Structures are given as C-alpha cells and as structure tokens.
Amino acid sequence: MKFLFIDTSSLYLTIAIIDDNKIVFNHKEQVEKDMSSKIIPIIDNGFKECSFSIKDINKIFVVNGPGSFTGVRIGVTVAKTIAWALKIDLIPLSSLEFIASTASDKKYLVPMIDARRGNVFAGIYDQELNNILPDVLISYEQLSKKIDESYQQISYHLDNSINPDGDILKVINKHLSDKSVNPHSLKPNYLKLTEAEEKLNDQRNN
Length: 206
Known about the structure:
CATH architecture of the largest domain: 2-Layer Sandwich
CATH class of the largest domain: Alpha Beta
CATH topology of the largest domain: Nucleotidyltransferase, domain 5
Helix content: 25-40%
Number of domains: 2
Strand content: 25-35%
Oligomer: single chain
Strand order of the largest sheet: 3-2-1-4-5
Structural class: alpha/beta
Radius of gyration: 17 Å
Order of helices and strands: EEEHEHEHEEEHEHH
Largest sheet: 5 strands, mixed
Shape: globular
C-alpha cells in the first residue's frame, strides 16, 4: 500500500510518501510565504525520488486543521484536487493529533497551536492518540487549569513545552481503516472564524 501525507497547517510544510509502512520520502521545511508555489514541485520531486507514480497511491492523508488558515487551505485544496482527479481515497487528520504523536514519556499529551490573543487550539491525547479533550479553541489560562506536570505540553510557541515532531506512521496506522471522504465535502477545520469574519461580526454587533 502506498500513501501520500500532506501537512501545511503550520509554518512547516511536511510531505511524506509511504510504501508498505515505510517512509520512502519525507520533506519538512519552514515556509514563511509562497507555500502554494512550493508544495506541488515538492510532491512531484518526491515521486521522482521514489521511482513510482502518484497514480500508484492508494490513499491520501491530509491534515485539515486547525492551524494557519492559509496553510490549511492550501494543503486541503491540493489533496482534494489529486484525490478527485485520480479517484484516490482521502482521509482527513487533525493537526493536534499529529502534534500529539510526538515522542514523550508522559501519559497525557497536550498539543497546542497559537491562536492569538491568549488563545490556543488545543486537545488532550493519551499515548495511543485517543482524544481525551476534543480539539477546541480555548484560552491558555483556562487550559492550564485542566493540566499539571503529568501532562506533556507540545507547542512551537511556549517555553515550557517541547517542539512538535509528529510520528507520521503512528498517525496513519491509527486511521488506516477510516472511511474515505468525498473530496468535494472535505473542508478545513479552522475551529474559529477568520479575522475577516471576526471583523464583520464586530461591525454587525456595533
């Protein structure tokens, strides 16, 4: 079985190709702009390195949020287009679950993404990636009251956390039997309004 993995939910663009449960191509780089112009050449180069075609892929696993609005939209759009055009199964994944797959010796893992204004996108997972606290937009102050030193915080932006280093195979194997979604129905899971939508709501409420 051959899989394509796409994560564009943060400043890091991650593309992986998996063949028989082995990662045969793995590209991760920090991209501050122009992610949309980089992703297709990277995918194309990956298949050239692996010496097989994108048409050989059995499933596409794509992180559909939460995270960077623009980044998530890019990854989801690319995954949907390939899945629809080539009739490949499409499986969405949570960015927070992927972050939670980072190696840790703590029983519970708390993946977090900065959502600004003192808020974070966060969830709580155990070592088997079971979702203890569903992914949510929450203030960091509120979240801190739910956890203690027995929980491992995982985030790029907090001093008392470890940096995310997700285990692609662990996440894929957990969702290997998930039902494929219709590419046309897959939407980014933003968990919050965009800034433009927030401003529009503020104008309406004033």
